[in-house]
Write a structure and sequence with these properties.
883 residues; alpha/beta; Single alpha-helices involved in coiled-coils or other helix-helix interfaces; Rossmann fold; 19-stranded parallel sheet; 26 helices; 31 strands; 16% strand
């Protein structure tokens, strides 16, 4: 919704100007306050009026257009003045004409409300009342469940585990949203499948596919880590990994036979029952394979109704009697398409449970669904019913490529940069943004992907049809200007957000650069590859996935709020670079993130960037902060900094800690060549001064033991996640860590621990849910269930000498997973003994996963444990990763 986005962005600019020690001086304070009051009035009007569907009309749309135009014009005047002020030091800007324009729009709003018969309470400012539908709450923060189609799943499992030895390709065909991927996912995650196949791998193909990314995904490797390897080399590595092994490969969302023909030679037929599942919307793709295929059918009325109830009433899964008749009518109109049922159910879940409201939804639904265009019409109901503040946030999910795994933390950063998230006196902007995301998930417009170690949502995905709706609606409302493939873009004189939907190889750079030079009002530029410098005077968001050059003038575009660049150091054969001092001119920047493998050296001026919230580099050296002229000098305090990583050899002096008082996520790397031992200890000694710190990742370097470093540290009570790696830490030093009252996640990586025996102390680790241990020396672990009373997941890696996992660990009532990777046989057998004992007690909640690097290790282990009663348990998974 462009109107709300325009107002929210303007309000964000006004708030930040008033709080900025340098910029606020170039405006009249009373004028800023007056303008903020007017914008706040209009924001409330749009939010409240928009939620009342009956008020929307042609007149309202015209009024919204006037509000948006006035807001954009005001923002242009103000931000242009800020740019000029910083560059040239101009005089105060008189905002009276801007105020008059906004005030005239407020008068139109008043007239509109009088015509509509709305009440205006002058004492409360923008306080008029409209009935708003109550929203329901939900505690779901994990993956939403789908109705399982038992018959189809059983048939697919039979086909996957059947006796046919030759390689079988099993297509699943059906229209978008009918549940092809869900069926494949349910089979892929089945215990039967995990135990039957040596290797299981999944890759999404999509219309615009990259063989390099597909092979990297199937090899479980990050694309950025494959260096200069070409597709052929990666394909050969995949072939070598699969040869001689029984494998299951899922190729999801295949759009062309051409894609398959480029990959098929790298899937060997081992004559051992290997299988490949291909999901596709195109029947000609499935027919190509000349074998029987699974054709996903529409749900019948009973299954449609059950799924509808599950999504509309997630707590009870039962429809109230007064709504059952109209509810069944709505479910029937979805014609058995699961995606539509899920999204409409999510809409009704968050809305008023009245017959009148549900009847209104039913009347707005198409009765015939024969094409994806008509399906989009149904899905648009869910968009139209979104609250005003969620619409621009929903639009932003369309910037990601098809089938992309969206990291929610990055999406929230973009929302904050655009000004979409309204400040809240109780919650931080990040917490408010998480609430927005949860709302979109509960409405089933986004699907949960991966979870964090603490169980919170880490990533999400968006269905292709929902993404199509998002893009088409955003384009229609002129929220984004999309440049596709080989388009010859027109002059972009009025476009505020430009999104490139295409491959770098398909760009006509000369035409694009010429068009971009005529984009004086552009605030957001987002694209997936490559960059040729173009100066955007008022640019706020600059998001480029990859660039082989880092133009210094990007740090001179002083209106920026969000910068994300992946920079290829190695292509230029240098591994370090200095950030220019002009970075401090970015008065409003919130996110400064540069990926790559090199190291950046920041200037002293970086301490004078009070709006910074996220400072993220592969490696960053921060200078000693300048002395403050007085104790209350806030101009060189990063009071809003939320995330700082990865900083190299940061000396956490008391003074530095005072400069980053709000940091919640901190990642530090200390090199092996730090000064003498006593100096190294002082570098991190003051960590307890960071009273809001929740996540600390400390890479201590591969040095000799450093006295009682960890034992003498005082961690902040706010700490929830701690990762240590690289230094020889004594097991008894963990007493300090275990006493942290809120610690939920502890990761001991890279052989960070020294000593052969660990004796935890009762009363510690009271809230620990996730424990990861990688230790080459640990032999004896003496623990009982009361040492880790709420532990949920235990990961052990590279424990080559551990005699056994304590049997008492299995008695922890919350324990759901024991996962061993490349551990010795005695530790692995003890894990199976724990599982066997727990299953004998009737505990079917615990899962055990044991992974070996080589197939021969797995075979040798299997021979020794085949007589265990739990050997055929669905809760046991034995795997080899690579030969």
């Amino acid at each position: 919704m462009a109107t709300y986005a325009a107002l929210a962005s303007l309000m964000s600019v006004l708030d930040q100007i008033q709080d900025h020690p340098r910029i606020s001086n170039c405006f009249h304070k009373k004028q800023l306050e007056s303008l903020s009051h007017l914008v706040g009035f209009l924001l409330d009007f749009v939010e409240i009026t928009h939620s009342h569907v009956g008020v929307l009309s042609e007149e309202y749309e015209v009024l919204e257009s006037d509000i948006a135009s006035a807001s954009y014009a005001a923002e242009d005047v103000i931000e242009t003045h800020v740019v000029d002020q910083i560059h040239s030091g101009l005089i105060l800007l008189d905002l009276q004409s801007v105020i008059e324009v906004i005030d005239s729009v407020k008068d139109k709003v008043g007239n509109f409300k009088k015509e509509m018969g709305l009440k205006l309470d002058q004492k409360e400012g923008p306080a008029y009342s409209l009935p708003t539908p109550p929203s329901t709450s939900s505690s779901s923060n994990g993956k939403s469940k789908m109705v399982e189609f038992d018959e189809e799943l059983i048939q697919l499992l039979d086909a996957l585990t059947g006796r046919q030895p030759s390689l079988q390709i099993i297509p699943i065909v059906g229209m978008g949203g009918i549940g092809k991927t869900t069926l494949a996912r349910n089979a892929y995650e089945s215990r039967l499948i995990l135990n039957h196949f040596d290797i299981c791998a999944w890759a999404t193909i999509s219309q615009e596919y990259s063989l390099k990314k597909i092979f990297s995904k199937l090899l479980s490797r990050q694309t950025s880590g494959v260096g200069q390897e070409i597709e052929q080399q990666l394909g050969q590595k995949l072939y070598q990994r699969l040869i001689g092994r029984r494998y299951l490969i899922i190729l999801d969302d295949v759009w062309s036979i051409d894609a398959w023909e480029k990959m098929m030679f790298f899937f060997p037929d081992n004559n051992n029952g290997s299988r490949i599942i291909i999901t596709t919307r195109l029947s000609n793709v499935s027919i190509y394979f000349g074998s029987s295929y699974f054709s996903k059918k529409f749900l019948d009325e009973d299954k449609s109704w059950n799924l509808f109830c599950e999504k509309a009433f997630p707590q009870e899964e039962v429809c109230p009697p007064q709504l059952e008749e109209i509810g069944k009518k709505i479910a029937k109109k979805c014609k058995g398409l699961p995606l539509l049922i899920v999204v409409i159910g999510g809409l009704l879940r968050k809305s008023s449970c009245t017959q009148e409201y549900w009847e209104n939804i039913s009347q707005n639904m198409n009765s015939i669904l024969d094409s994806e265009e008509q399906n989009l019409d149904i899905l648009s109901l869910s968009y139209r019913q979104l609250p005003a503040h969620l619409k621009p946030c929903f639009f932003y999910t369309g910037i990601y490529p098809e089938d992309y795994e969206i990291h929610l933390s990055e999406l929230i950063k973009l929302w904050i940069a655009e000004g979409f998230i309204k400040p809240n006196k109780i919650k931080s902007l990040e917490e408010v943004g998480e609430g927005y995301l949860k709302d979109l998930v509960e409405r089933n417009l986004l699907s949960v992907g991966r979870l964090r170690l603490n169980g919170q949502i880490k990533t999400c995905t968006i269905h292709d049809l929902v993404r199509d709706l998002c893009i088409k609606t955003a384009e229609k409302e002129k929220f984004f200007y999309f440049i596709r493939f080989c388009d010859s873009p027109r002059a972009l004189t009025k476009e505020r957000r430009i999104l490139f939907l295409g491959k770098n190889s398909e760009i006509n750079h000369d035409l694009l650069s010429h068009a971009l030079e005529s984009a004086p009002l552009t605030r957001s530029f987002l694209r997936n590859a490559g960059w040729r410098p173009v100066r955007f005077r008022l640019l706020k968001v600059f998001n480029v996935d990859y660039t082989d050059s880092l133009p210094s003038d990007i740090f001179e575009q002083i209106n920026l709020r969000y910068v994300w660049i992946y920079y290829d150091f190695y292509k230029h054969k240098h591994y370090s670079r200095e950030l220019p001092w002009t970075v401090s001119l970015l008065w409003n920047v919130q996110t400064l993130k540069i990926g790559g493998f090199g190291i950046f050296y920041a200037p002293t001026e970086i301490w004078s960037m009070p709006q910074l919230r996220y400072l993220e580099f592969a490696r960053l050296c921060l200078p000693t902060p300048p002395l403050r002229s007085q104790e209350k000098d806030d101009s060189i305090v990063l009071k809003n900094l939320h995330t700082l990583k990865t900083v190299v050899d940061l000396n956490l002096s008391e003074e530095v800690c005072k400069r980053i008082p709000s940091v919640k996520i901190l990642k530090i790397k200390y090199n092996d060549f730090l000064p003498e031992r006593s100096s190294r200890e002082t570098f991190i000694y003051n960590i307890g001064c960071l009273h809001k710190l929740e996540s600390l990742n400390c890479q201590l370097g591969n040095v000799q033991p450093c006295g009682n470093l960890v034992r003498n540290l005082k961690f902040p009570t706010s700490l929830k996640k701690l990762t240590l790696s690289g230094r020889k830490i004594e097991w008894e030093d963990l007493t300090t860590i275990g006493s942290s009252p809120n610690l939920e996640v502890l990761q001991l990586k890279d052989g960070s621990m020294t000593g052969s025996e660990w004796n935890p102390v009762e009363g510690e680790f009271l809230r620990l849910k996730y424990l990861f241990i990688n230790s080459w020396e640990l032999k004896h672990w003496n623990a009982e269930s009361f040492h880790f009373p709420v532990l949920e997941k235990l990961y052990l890696s590279g424990l080559l000498h551990l005699d056994e996992i304590p049997l008492g660990i299995g008695e922890i009532p919350t324990l759901a997973l024991i996962h061993l990777l490349s551990c010795n046989e005695s530790a692995s057998m003890s894990a199976m003994s724990i599982l066997e004992e727990q299953e004998s007690f009737g505990n079917d909640h615990l899962r055990v996963v044991i992974q070996f690097w080589r197939k021969m290790e797995l075979e040798r282990f299997t021979e020794k444990v085949v007589d265990f009663e739990c050997f055929n348990s669905n809760n046991l998974q034995l795997q080899s990763l690579a030969d």
